[in-house]
TrEMBL record, chain B:
<dbReference type="InterPro" id="IPR012334">
    <property type="entry name" value="Pectin_lyas_fold"/>
</dbReference>
<keyword id="KW-0732">Signal</keyword>
<dbReference type="Pfam" id="PF05048">
    <property type="entry name" value="NosD"/>
</dbReference>
<protein>
    <submittedName>
        <fullName>Nitrous oxide reductase family maturation protein NosD</fullName>
    </submittedName>
</protein>
<dbReference type="InterPro" id="IPR026464">
    <property type="entry name" value="NosD_copper_fam"/>
</dbReference>
<feature type="domain" description="Carbohydrate-binding/sugar hydrolysis">
    <location>
        <begin position="194"/>
        <end position="354"/>
    </location>
</feature>
<dbReference type="InterPro" id="IPR011050">
    <property type="entry name" value="Pectin_lyase_fold/virulence"/>
</dbReference>
<feature type="signal peptide">
    <location>
        <begin position="1"/>
        <end position="20"/>
    </location>
</feature>
<dbReference type="InterPro" id="IPR007742">
    <property type="entry name" value="NosD_dom"/>
</dbReference>
<dbReference type="InterPro" id="IPR006633">
    <property type="entry name" value="Carb-bd_sugar_hydrolysis-dom"/>
</dbReference>
<dbReference type="InterPro" id="IPR006626">
    <property type="entry name" value="PbH1"/>
</dbReference>
<feature type="domain" description="Carbohydrate-binding/sugar hydrolysis">
    <location>
        <begin position="48"/>
        <end position="187"/>
    </location>
</feature>
<dbReference type="InterPro" id="IPR022441">
    <property type="entry name" value="Para_beta_helix_rpt-2"/>
</dbReference>
Length: 144, 411
């Protein structure tokens, strides 16, 4: 044994988001879900990962990973990470979500950019409200 | 020189009361563009003589025309923005601009235009910039004949060449963009008019629509980008007479459609792309009169795409014509030319007497088992495909072209 599923490297500039089909280019937002066989579903943003998490059957999901916005080499367990939801810090699919290792660093970013500090459950609620409860991804934002 | 300037200025004053001309020159009285902007009356014409100007964050808060003579260089020294336009009716013309700031949280651009209308950005050359020309909450305005170039070898650290966010009725014409993340990027843009542009060798897409309805793009060239064009979450976009070529790679497409409705794809040429047209969640799009030649797959259409019509296209020597993920088909293929068609035309009316089924059995197999691609062009596969054509078992029963053209459609 000893083959614990773990995050895979993302090939920025060629891997495709499993939710929105966009090419993944930003290391500070690229996220992934790893299944029990070790296969990684890669996403261009935290919001796309959460949308996939909400719309797909998660029975075979092993773990969910997001990058630390302040250290893009570091993978954080999505369920334990702390998120900033700030309209002055834009993310690839327009839901303004970035992830941090702990509350202290998220607070520091909040002091600079404003917004709210939220957990993964709240991230899913934001995605549910903004995208899923009214049809296709992001349409309601047209009127902003 | 100064005398000439004063005389020119006097003439301008005499000709149009209230207007004025100011000349900026490295060895003249006014050495900085920023200073000229500060002292200018609204409506003034600022002429910038050749030379190098180390300046950034040049804020423009009144209607002005800034014109470079022989492309004076504005070097931002990798700090912040270069021009920030916050007034209506501003023209920026004829500059060479280099070295904006770079940041993960701020979209530093060479020319930032925010919350205004009636601007003209033309004939500028931008190099080594993070974002090139950035339009935010603008209305109207023209971006014409600019060149934006930034080959940044560090992955994922480039911004977009021409970036539009929350914009109404922009015109993006005859620009050349290369080496950026997206060549031209649109998010929440209504009725964009995009034509005559060349967008090559960008890391992600040549042109990228997100949540942007209406308008059209035509007569553009998209070559060797991560993928040619991505049109996503948008309705009523017309795509005409463009060239999509050499977009190769694992996630590379000529044209990627995702959640698109009521649009038109007409008269385009798709040449040597991994997938010429990829379609997911796409409905009521009319794909008519295109040349789709020498691609890996001509069309990859997902089962959540419906009521799309493929008519009078030339499908020429693609490795596979159509790929899909479902035995059901809700799209129409009618009157296309397929170079792989092996039917006959006994009544000589130019239309094949038996329908053509563009989804080959083998393309269904490799969708499930990519490793089997090694068998492509083997006799075994040819036999399988022939058998499947005579008595379809696995390929979609309703996906066929009933009136395939015998000869390539001449345009």
């Amino acid at each position: 044994m000893g083959c614990e599923p773990k995050p895979q490297p993302i090939n920025y500039g060629s891997d495709e988001c499993a939710y929105c089909r966009m090419m993944i280019t930003d290391a500070e937002f690229g996220s992934q879900i790893v299944n029990n066989q070790g296969r990684a579903y890669k996403f261009d943003s935290v919001e796309c990962m959460a949308a996939y998490d909400l719309t797909e059957d998660g029975e075979n999901f092993h773990s969910k990973w997001v990058p630390n916005f302040l250290d893009r080499e570091e993978w954080l367990n999505a369920e334990e990470a702390v998120y900033l939801h700030s309209e002055t810090l834009r993310s690839p699919m327009g839901l303004f979500l970035s992830a941090y290792a702990d509350r202290t660093s998220a607070e520091e970013m909040k002091d600079e950019y404003g917004g709210d500090i939220v957990d993964y459950e709240a991230v899913k609620q934001i995605v549910e409200r903004e995208w899923l409860s009214n049809g296709s991804g992001g349409r309601q934002m047209m009127n902003n | 020189m100064i005398l000439k300037t004063i005389i020119a200025g006097l003439f301008a004053l005499l000709a149009q009361p209230g207007l004025a001309q100011i000349v900026v020159s490295p060895d003249g009285e006014i050495k900085s563009i920023k200073q000229a902007v500060e002292m200018a009356e609204p409506g003034a014409h600022i002429l910038v003589e050749p030379g190098t100007y180390m300046e950034s964050d040049i804020g423009i808060d009144k209607p002005l025309t800034l014109e470079g003579i022989d492309y004076p260089l504005i070097d931002g020294n990798s700090e912040g923005f270069i021009f920030v336009i916050a007034a209506d009716s501003v023209t920026i013309k004829g500059f060479n601009i280099k070295r904006t700031g770079r940041s993960y949280v701020r979209d530093y651009a060479a020319i930032m235009i925010e919350g205004v209308k009636d601007f003209i950005i033309e004939d500028n050359r931008l190099e080594d910039v993070f974002f090139g020309i950035y339009l935010a909450e603008t209305e109207g305005g023209v971006v014409r004949n600019n060149r934006v170039e930034a080959f940044d070898t560090r992955e994922a650290s480039s911004g977009n060449g021409i970036h539009l966010w929350s914009v109404k009725n922009p015109k993006i014409i005859d620009n050349e963009v290369m080496g950026m993340r997206d060549g031209i990027y649109l998010e929440f843009v209504d009725n964009a008019e995009i034509y005559g542009n060349t967008s090559n060798e960008n890391n992600r897409y040549g042109l990228h629509y997100m949540f942007s309805d209406g308008g059209r793009y035509y007569d553009n060239i998209f070559r060797r980008n991560g993928a040619g064009v991505a049109v996503m979450y948008s309705d009523n976009v017309d795509m005409m007479n463009n060239l999509f070529e050499h977009n190769w790679g694992t996630a590379a497409y000529g044209l990627l459609l995702k959640d698109i409705n009521y649009s038109k794809i007409e008269g385009n040429r798709f040449y040597r792309n991994t997938v010429a047209i990829y379609s997911e969640g796409t409905n009521e799009v009319h794909i008519h009169g295109n040349d789709i030649e020498l691609n890996g797959w001509a069309v990859n259409i997902k089962s959540n795409s419906a009521r799309n019509q493929f008519t009078e296209n030339n499908f020429i020597e693609n490795s596979f014509d159509v790929r899909t993920d479902s035995p059901r088909n809700n799209n129409e293929f009618e009157g296309n030319y397929w170079s792989q068609y092996e039917g006959y035309d006994l009544d000589r009316d130019g239309i094949g007497d038996v329908p053509y089924r563009p989804v080959s059995l083998f393309s269904m197999v490799i969708t499930k088992q990519p490793e089997s691609l090694i068998l492509l062009r083997s006799m075994f596969i040819k036999l399988l495909d022939t058998a499947e054509r005579i008595a379809p078992v696995l390929t979609p029963k309703t996906l066929y072209d009933e009136n395939p053209k015998m000869d390539q459609i001449v345009r």
